[in-house]
Write a structure and sequence with these properties.
It is built from five helices and no strands. With 133 residues, the protein is an all-alpha fold. It is globular, with a radius of gyration of 17 Å.
Length: 133
Amino acid sequence: MIIDLGYPLAQQSLVAEAVFLQEPFLWAALWTVLIETPLFFLLGYRLPREWLAFAGINVVSNLLLNEALSELWFYDHALLVPGIVSGEILVVLLEFALCRSVVYSGDRRLFVVLCATNLTSLLCGLCFYALRF
């Protein structure tokens, strides 16, 4: 998002220009939640506070990741693959840090489940985009 310093911030619609609020990003976040949350549930996190918190954390992390990837794509297409790999690692770490405050199982189990859900979602997304293009 570009901020023009020549105009007062009040006149600039920062929220309306936010890339992550555009429709494709919202669809990606929805699909991510629809893929990862049931898997999180099936892998043993069945308390509503656990999977609902996970779903909310997932939306936020997905929007942040897709915003970062769109910026990388805009500046240099060659950065996309390293961006996806490093972005997914950061997403797992972010989700782990946030989920630890809600999920009271062992840290190792939580980390493995988060890796599994994110890997599943990544593979589904890659298949979707491979079939689409």
